[in-house]
Amino acid sequence: MSEVEGVVEGETIGVWGRMVQSDLWYSFTHSPLAMISALFALVFILACLFAGFVAPHDPFNLASVSLFDSLLPPAWQDGGNISYLLGTDDQGRDVFSTILYGGRISLLVGFLSVAFAAVLGIAVGLVAGYAGGITDAIFMRIADIQLSFPAILIALLIDGVFRGLLPRGLHDEVAVYVLVLSIGLSFWVQYARTVRSSVMIERTKEYVQAGQVIGLPPGTILFRHILPNVLGPVLVIATIQLALAIITEATLSFLGVGVPPTQPSLGTLIRIGNDYLFSGEWWITIFPGIALVLLVLSINLLGDWLRDALNPKLR
Q1: Number of neighbouring beta carbons within 10 Å of residue 7
Q2: How many CB atoms sit inside 10 A of residue 278's CB?
Q3: Axis-axis angle for helices 231-254, 95-131 (nearest 10)
Q4: What is the pTM of this model?
Q5: Class of the 31-314 domain?
Q6: 43-81 burial: b if 16+ Cβ within 10 Å, else e
Q7: Which residue, among 307, 266, 263, 312, has the nearest Cα to 290 in the 3D structure?
Q8: Crossing angle for the helix pair 32-49 and 283-309, nearest 10 degrees?
Q9: Is it the case that residue 315 has pLDDT exceeding 50?
Q10: Residues 130-156 pLDDT 10s
Q11: Fewer CB within 10 Å: N-end or C-end of the chain?
Q12: Which residues contact 281 (CB under 8 A, 6 or more apart)?
């Protein structure tokens, strides 16, 4: 083994060793609920990402979808088909396959909207907390006004405005981007307020004052020195808001203002199945609903564990 390879291997082992010996890893491995939640969320996310290999059918391939197979019950009921484990919908699509493909869209919207909200909220919080004065007052009053409205109402408003401004022919093409923008603009306030409070504490510490004395630019102080020290609460907020973003997307799609039926998310699948719920075809809406509940529950449980693990008062 060469000297360079030995150094690289030593650094890798060192990083892995520090992670295994950290308090966060100890807390995770001693919390069965957190491990079960993480396992379910990981399996679901991977199954959705590789839906083309995991799903037994392609619900968007018209050549493989037959109306003769529509409204088949789950395989264990009379009239069911083993090829369609959870039954089929009104178009003959396999419900299990549509859950995986629909979950991919829900997760995409959730992750992108949380990332957008986090970037916007962190930037606003850093600037407001460090600058103070009139800048802080303006940003926080905007945040207070937005907090007086429910997030779903703000998302509906933003979504409606963009749909009104864009040509009707572009609605389906940009539906996912409009959802990401509307949900992200609904959730940035929590990041901004949390980061602002942490920055107001950090800016009085000696390392910040030392950076100011030696003439470091405010941007360097904010993003290179203060930001790493305020990311703990941000991770907790991001985990919890991922579940909220997925629920918000499902709600908007259920109301008919989310992704188009040609790109069904879990919310769209629940809305489609709701039309057949009282006629006896319960599986079309129940199974996507169960998948949504379990996904959101696992993410929320991970968020609760992360909040407790990063709280020094509970150690």
Answers
A1: 10
A2: 8
A3: 130
A4: 0.85
A5: mainly alpha
A6: ebbebbeebeeebebbbeeeeebeeebebbbbeeeeebe
A7: 266
A8: 130
A9: yes
A10: 888 898 899 999 988 888 888 788 888
A11: N
A12: 71, 73, 87, 90, 273
CA 288 – CA 290 distance, rounded (Å): 5
Tell me how far apart the alpha carbons of residues 306 and 235 are, in angstroms, rounded to a whole number.
Answer: 8
Q: Which two tokens stand for residue 132?
A: 């103070």
If you count them, how many residues does the chain have?
315
The per-residue pLDDT for range 100-119, each reduced to its tens digit, is: 998 999 999 999 999 999 99
Per the listing, tokens 């990041």 go with 191
